[in-house]
Design brief:
Blueprint: H1 2-20, E1 22-31, E2 42-45, E3 51-53, E4 59-65, E5 69-73, E6 80-83, E7 92-94, E8 104-107, E9 110-113, E10 121-125, H2 126-130, E11 148-151, E12 161-164, E13 176-179, E14 182-184, E15 195-201, H3 204-207, E16 218-223, E17 231-243, H4 253-266, H5 283-287, E18 291-303, E19 307-319, E20 326-339, E21 344-358, H6 364-369, E22 377-379, E23 382-384, H7 397-403, E24 408-425, E25 429-448, E26 453-456, E27 465-467, E28 475-498, E29 502-525, E30 549-571, E31 575-586, E32 595-606, H8 611-616, E33 620-634, E34 647-655, E35 658-665, E36 668-669, E37 676-689, E38 694-706, E39 709-713, E40 720-724, E41 727-743, E42 746-763, E43 772-774, E44 779-781, E45 789-792, E46 795-798, H9 802-807, E47 819-821, E48 836-839, E49 845-855, E50 858-868, E51 871-873, E52 921-923, E53 926-937, H10 940-945, E54 950-964, E55 992-1001
Length: 1002
């Protein structure tokens, strides 16, 4: 009996050993949608340290017990657990993850999972950025991030204006950019195809770690690194055609003749003789063209066990839709990281950039103002001049374009680099030492050639003549500037998890930043010999030094040193704390005022982790409540050494036989002058539901800027006091939604967002009636109103008759046909006191709609974007220095009683009609169909035979249509000048772009 029992025991033991014995499991991991092999997927034996990774073909091999569970994880995909159950071959299809909570978000001096954030941070993937054919990658963020205002320019190579959550200051409101750790004020040099992700940090909890530099928000840019375990060659190329989507509606020759004849009759002037003016010229047709745009990028990456390398080369060529304008850009980037062992790695990054710009030398308003009755030219060197009534003020636009074509050379070079070393020690500590540099050199040379011969057509008894301006001499100009930046960061990070419930990450560091710049410029006019139209001669020394010229030079330098720390703590992934502190010292201010301390605290509660929520709420996967408060500074956009003003020459005095100028400071600095102080509160809720198909993020913020750096005019002297004065608030709501789903081979997502911002100047010079004006008084900043609001009269109609003038308030010189203005103060007269707030140039609402569709190998994206609540000032219509061409609205001008109650009489001598009023304002609301793109990804099995890994081709249309009530080329009026924003004074058109492109990987 004992022997039988022993035999049974041995038999069972042998069965158990056979079942638990390791076996070799192999297989392939692919994308569940595209069937593309996934490279670098982590395959782990659950509950052990045994693991492997997939190779270039997506294949893996691992030795595990036959009853093991394998865990497959890959960034951007949902993890899978599969029971081996004795199988030796397992093929796995991973599904793209729709859960953003595990996404790693880059923050200041580190990174965090989105689940653990207590601040308001929006992340945009690099693949979404590179799909838009924009030279500047920031433009591709438009409409994708709630609370982000972006105003683009159609000028080739131009940077957009960016505002995060409104306007914080009357001085500077642009965010900083942090590119792989380097603090920048622009990212013109970054290739869009080289970006891994962009994070927009909006609240104090996220930005306080940057101290006085983070006051206007921060955009963190992370560039691509070599994919683990593979060598890859990727090529992207696109070719596009740019067109002007709409022209400004001006009258043709017939309309001009009728309107000008009516205007002459209104002022009792003699009729104009149009006999020799038989042309019908559309000047806009002539200055614009269909322009080419070409973007190319080649990257080679390799990753081994000890090192990773990526080389990226980019070339962009953009012609302007305005003739003779173009922009070229060249990029080169090298990144390499070396891993000596598990504890030490070093690396570096070099980014080189070169641009060549050739702007068109003509005013867009010139084409609008030029009379359409004039022909263009007789031959290559003979052009028609404008009629006598505008000849001295308005030139032939085509003559100006052709004369100045290729007479300017504008080139620049920039090199941005960094090196770092990272040491992990005592298991939980990580020390990182980084050194950065940014150096740029810009130069331009220009030439002013001789003029053309002009034909002056005969008018009445005056015969046709030809003129050549002998007073114009050739001249050259030359400019050079350079910029230097040196930055170093030293950080120590401690990260640990205690008893599985307590997760702690602590950061301490110091950083320093030094910047310097200088520039020289000059021009010289020849008085004897004509300088040749040859770039080899466009230097200042080409003419005798005795010839007249002007020369200027400038330079500046500043330094900053900072100490900072941050603690992130979570308990059971339910309760979150984020606290940071930073102390900054800045050379811009006097020694006694240089140092300031800033900080923030953020709290989060993952409500969905509570048992009462899990047990009672169905369909909602994740709910987090978060709040943060912080204080930080703003010293961006200020001059250097503000406490030491420069000197200026003012009055002169006579002493004996000599005259001596007096020298005074250019301004009077407040002895307590310091940075602007920003304090903000941020409260939000994040929700995910229906198996992570639905996500929502709702945020309320309340941010206040105090001690605004302000220039206050001093009475009786031509100077001003530079002091800290005033308080500005920005309050708003942001809502981002997304729904992502997959039905068989069809997947789709829709992601709308909307934000509202209320800007208000809480106080500024309340005790002495102080206001800040911009754009010649068109804009005004004063207590109780928004920054830079439009200030003028409110139109209530047009005076139809003298009877109207008798019963309505009016100016003393008002006449029938003039604009009638509202009597705001009710005193029965129209005076300066009747000017009022006419609206803001800054939108109250920003919104975007992003839709993506995919079916098998086809994919499609549709993006829309818009703003609401702002106004645009049609400044181009306000000029009356000459008789100018008429926009089509003037066809409805007042002629007699009852003909118009909006358009005043045709008479450019009546100055009252050119006063700033809402007659010159248009609603700035618009919605733009930003992008429509259709792509096709080729079958991987077919590509493999040709030695390719992936190939996607696409057709794309950008800025296809804009729904707007504005009459200009684009409703995106400039807002870069904070106190004088929103004026359309000849805005360069935002072109429609039609693109064909391909993305190819080997």
């Amino acid at each position: 009996m004992k022997r039988k029992s022993l035999l049974v025991f041995l038999f069972l033991l042998s069965c158990f050993n056979a079942f638990a014995q390791n076996i070799k499991v192999s297989g392939r991991v692919t994308d569940g949608i595209s069937n593309e092999a996934l490279i670098g997927v982590t395959v782990k034996h659950k509950g052990s340290t045994i693991g492997a990774q997939t190779d270039l073909n997506g294949d893996f091999s691992i030795s595990v017990p036959s009853n093991a569970t394998l865990v497959f994880t890959y960034l951007g995909f949902t993890a899978q657990e599969i029971l081996v159950n004795g199988r030796t071959t397992i093929n796995v299809k991973l599904s793209p993850s729709t859960n953003e909570l595990d996404q790693v978000v880059v923050i200041g001096y580190g990174s965090q999972k989105k689940r653990d954030l207590t601040g308001s941070i929006s992340s945009v993937r690099g693949e979404d950025i590179e799909k838009s054919p924009n030279t500047n990658p920031v433009s591709s963020l438009q409409g994708k991030v709630a609370g982000l205002t972006i105003v683009n320019s159609g000028t080739p190579g131009a940077s957009p204006t960016v505002r995060i959550r409104g306007i914080n200051s009357t001085n500077a409101a642009s965010p900083i950019y942090v590119v792989d750790g380097v603090i920048q004020t622009n990212i013109d040099y970054v290739n869009a195809a080289d970006i891994e992700s962009m994070e927009v940090l909006k609240d104090p909890s996220s930005t306080a770690i940057f101290g006085t530099q983070g006051g206007n928000g921060v955009i963190v840019v992370t560039t691509k690194r070599a994919a683990k375990g593979e060598t890859r060659i990727a090529f992207q190329s696109s070719v596009g055609l740019q067109t002007v989507p709409n022209q400004i509606d001006v009258v043709d020759a017939s309309g001009f003749k009728n309107l000008y004849a009516a205007q002459l009759a209104n002022i009792n002037a003699a009729p104009f003789d149009f006999t020799n003016y038989t042309a019908n010229t559309n000047w806009q047709d002539l200055i614009f063209k269909t322009a080419m745009q070409n973007n190319n990028n080649l990257s080679v990456s390799s990753s081994g066990e000890k090192s990773t390398t990526i080389v990226n080369v980019g070339y962009n060529n953009q012609e302007g839709v305005l003739r003779n304008s173009r922009f070229q850009r060249y990029n080169f980037r090298l990144n390499q990281e070396l891993k000596f062992n598990d504890n030490l790695k070093v690396g570096g990054d070099v980014n080189a950039y070169h641009y060549n710009s050739d702007p068109a030398d003509v005013s867009l308003n010139n084409a609008l103002w030029s009379a359409p009755i004039v022909g263009v030219q007789e031959d290559a060197k003979t052009y028609y001049s404008m009629p006598s009534f505008q000849r001295a003020q308005v030139g032939n636009p085509i003559a100006s374009l052709n004369r100045n074509d290729q007479t300017s050379i504008n080139k620049g070079y920039r090199a941005v680099g960094n090196i770092f070393a990272e040491l992990t020690f005592l298991k939980n500590f990580k020390f990182r030492s980084s050194f950065y540099t940014d150096m740029s050199w810009n130069g331009s040379r220009g030439y002013n050639p001789l003029p053309y011969t002009f034909i002056n057509l005969g008018e009445g008894s005056i015969p046709t003549t030809r003129t050549f301006d002998n007073s114009i001499r050739t001249s050259v100009d030359q400019n050079q500037s350079e910029f230097r930046k040196f930055q170093q960061d030293q950080t120590l990070t401690y990260e640990n998890t205690f008893n599985t419930d307590h997760k702690l990450t602590a950061l301490a560091g110091l950083t320093s930043l030094y910047t310097a710049s200088n520039s020289l410029s000059g021009n010289r006019r020849d008085t004897t010999l004509n300088i040749p139209n040859d770039p080899d001669f466009w230097y200042l020394n080409i003419t005798n030094i005795a010839n007249p010229g002007n020369y200027n030079g400038s330079g500046s330098e500043s330094a900053q040193q900072s100490y900072f720390g941050r603690v992130n703590y979570s308990f059971k992934s339910k309760y979150l704390v984020n606290a940071s502190i930073r102390r900054d010292g800045i050379s811009k201010f006097a020694p006694e005022n240089r140092w300031g301390t800033f900080g923030s605290v953020g709290l989060g509660w993952v409500l969905s982790e509570e048992s009462f929520f899990k047990d009672n709420i169905k369909g909602i996967d994740f709910v987090k409540l978060r709040g943060s408060w912080g204080t930080l500074g703003n010293a961006q956009g200020f001059g250097e050494n503000l406490y030491r003003p420069g000197l200026t020459i003012t009055d002169v005095g006579v002493f004996g036989n000599n005259v001596y100028p007096s020298v005074t400071p250019s301004y009077v600095p407040d002895p307590n002058l310091h940075w602007e102080v920003i304090r903000g509160l941020d409260i939000g809720m994040e929700v995910q539901g229906f198996n992570s198909r639905l996500s929502a993020d709702l945020t309320y913020y309340n941010r206040t800027t105090k001690d605004i750096l302000t220039r206050v005019p001093l009475p009786a002297i031509s100077s001003y006091l530079l002091t800290n004065l005033g308080t500005i608030s920005n309050k708003g709501l942001e809502l981002s939604l997304a729904w992502r789903d997959k039905i068989g081979n069809f997947s789709y997502s829709i992601a709308p967002n909307i934000s509202h911002n209320k800007n208000n100047v809480e106080s500024i010079g309340d005790n002495f009636n102080f206001q800040i004006t911009g754009n010649g008084g068109v804009n005004r900043t004063s207590s109780g109103e928004s920054i830079g609001y439009f200030y003028g009269y409110k139109q209530v109609g047009v005076y139809q008759s003298t009877a109207d003038l008798d019963k309505m308030p009016a100016f003393a010189n008002s006449l029938p046909g003039d604009i009638a203005y509202a009597d705001i103060n009710g005193d029965g007269f129209i005076t300066d006191a009747d000017r009022t707030n006419l609206g803001s140039p800054f939108p109250d609402y920003n919104y975007g709609l992003n839709l993506s569709l995919a079916y098998k190998s086809f994919d499609m994206i549709v993006e829309g974007q818009g703003v609401a609540g702002n106004h645009v000032y049609t400044q181009r219509r306000t000029s009356n220095f000459a008789v100018l061409n008429y926009e089509s609205n003037r066809l409805n001008a007042f002629t007699r009683a009852g003909t118009s109650n909006i358009e005043p009489i045709l008479d450019n001598t009546r100055g009252n009609n050119y006063l700033m009023s809402n007659y010159f304002l248009e609603p700035g609301d618009y919605f733009r169909l930003r992008t429509v793109q259709l792509g096709y990804t080729f079958n991987q099995a077919i590509l493999k035979k040709a030695g390719m890994k992936s190939l996607r081709m696409y057709l794309s249309g950008q800025n296809l249509n804009t729904w707007s009530k504005t009459t200009g080329y684009t409703p995106e009026a400039p807002i870069s000048n904070i106190i004088g924003a929103g004026a359309d004074n000849g805005i360069y058109p935002i072109p429609s772009v039609y693109t064909f492109g391909l993305n190819l990987t080997f």
